[in-house]
Amino acid sequence: KVAIKGIERELVCPACKELFTHPLILPCQHNVCHKCVKEILFAFEDSFADGGSESSNQSSPRIRISASSMDRIDRISRSGRKRNSLTPRSTLFPCPGCQRDIDLGERGINGLFRNLTLETIVERYRQAARAAIAIMCDFCKPPPQESTKSCMDCSASYCNECFKIHHPWGTLKAQHEYVGPTTNFRPKILMCPEHEMERVNMYCEICRRPVCHLCKLGGCHANHRVTTMSTAYKTLKEKLSKDIEYLISKESQVKAHITQLDLLLKETECNSERAKQEASQSFEKLYHVLEEKKSAALRAIDTSKNIRLEKLQTQVEEYQGLLENNGLVGYAQEVLKETDPSCFVQTAKQLHVRIQKATESLKTFRPAAETTFEDFVVDIAKQEDILGDLSFHSNGLEIPEINEKQSRMYNKALISWECPGKADSADIYVLEYHKLNREEENVTWQNIEVCGKSKVVSDLDDDSSYAFRVRGYKGSICSPWSREVILRTPPAPVFSFLFDDKCGYNNERLQLDPGRTSVESRAGFPLLLGSERLLVGCYTTLDYIIGDTGIAKGKHFWAFRVEAYSYLVKVGVVPSNKIQKLFHSTHDVTSPRYEQDSGHDSGSEDAFFDSSQPCTLVTLGMKKFFIPTTPAAPKDPASRILPLPSCLGICLDCDRGRVGFYDAGCMKCLYECEVDCSGIMYPAFALMGGAAVHLEEAVIEKYSEYDDDI
């Protein structure tokens, strides 16, 4: 015999908070007492006539409609629905279990099934709770005797003598079904609520409810997929049995989780007290300024503690329900005792879903609340003039996140952030940053108040890493700090220039945008005419373009982006005394024997290549970055091929005679070499086939001033 004293939570009506009485199954698979359904519907309907007044909520002392349910009633009453409409309408019911408006259809409460299995389990629980109270015979003359059996056909209880009198041998009554003493008399056959004279004999897999053959032939289930009741009974019972066996086999794991949760409860209590003490000590040191905020801080800690304790306690109760003979498992074990397929199927489907959810929760156990109170540590290092803004972190405000894709570092830093949710957005943000320096022990953050969600930060040191973080404020409440994002500044001041549209510019095969910040090679008809004159095995020329501004001294950096579809692009620098050679090279059309990687092993190719190059360039193309062949370069060709960064940078140091090629996203140097800086140096680019290059735009203040308003 299975004890059922641990399943009380499963047998309580969500409306009246008492044991179920004639429970009905709603379309959402929740159960509600028959009387509670009628009372809620009466209050629901009265709200349309009373305008959703609070007086309708007091009509029944048995139930209390929640504020959220009343809000839904007001919303529906304001939507224009009228009573006594001549057009057919469905009945909406505010389910107290899931807090959703459930459509009961045109039949309303008359279309709901009575949960006979749950009713039987409730009656067993009542009998277990009142084992000392006997059920008396309904037919004895006073004083009545204690009943020994109950007739399910007569819906009455009898003592032995009265049962013989009212069920004599040889009559039809002698064939009635009788059980032990009970007050729960349910019908022997589950009838269809749509067709009251028909018994249910099929199960609709779409609506997940028992139906009769008339529902399948011409009713609302005509086009639905159905199965026989015996098949549904067998399938659901097998699934439910397997899941219950799994939960029972994990009883030791459940107990371990409960033990862990008990420890977390104690730890939460201890940590909350410790946090309160630390907060009290901090406020005592600044008593004259913070006295008014002290009580608010302690209340915040207690509120957080209560929320966490409530979550953890609820989690403990949920896991206790997974123990054998307790809660959900105990309820499921009682359901398995049901032998009537129709009654079992209508109860087991929703129960099986809950069992599956409980099974999943065992696989990924996670405490419902954190035990630490680090967010409530008060910072007393600030000066007294800013103590008025001192507050705890609030869980009500979303933690902003710095968007690393939209943020960038160039001549200035553009920092953009966003909030995961839109609710309770902050009124103002504070952006803080500091330079990363290993020698400094105490970090000093610089802060900027921002009304929008982006900010341009200037006056940053070159070739340095900075950490950025942001938090939101709404009144005196602030969110926790965002995750710190580290960005590195360019290795030198940013050099600004445009593409030169005069010196050597080939407008037949290159196309500049009006602002001269983008160039694209056009492999059109002129290229075809040029290719017609070439011998087999020869290659066409590169189309060069340079910057309109030169560099005579100092260290400078510029960045650009190469389109991913680009076939071949070369980038680098060229001295002024070799520009003419660049645009009028005799090797515009070359044969493979002159190429650096022609396959000959004589070594003459490298010597010819080095001496003939008028400028220092690296090759890009097909989403790759190719490190030039030098004595110091890796001999393995595969190790010289790197993925093409989304943004490339070039740093030219005229004083040292060095040029470096960088991944401008993280300011990492990919390749560096010596360069002859005897003349004025110009940025140089070469394109062949389909290719495009875009100069990086400078960061200006308009990004932060106008983006949010737009």
From TrEMBL:
GO terms for cellular component: acrosomal vesicle; microtubule. Pfam families: ANCHR-like_BBOX, COS, zf-B_box, zf-RING_UBOX. Residues 187-229 form the B box-type domain. The keyword Ligase applies. It is found in: Cytoplasm, Cytoskeleton. The keyword Ribonucleoprotein does not apply. Residues 399-492 form the Fibronectin type-III domain. GO terms for biological process: acrosome reaction; spindle organization. PROSITE patterns: B302_SPRY, COS, FN3, ZF_BBOX, ZF_RING_1. It comes from the Eukaryota. GO terms for molecular function: ligase activity; ubiquitin-protein transferase activity; zinc ion binding. Residues 477-704 form the B30.2/SPRY domain. Belongs to the TRIM/RBCC family. This is TRI36 ligase. It comes from Oxyruncus cristatus. The gene is Trim36.
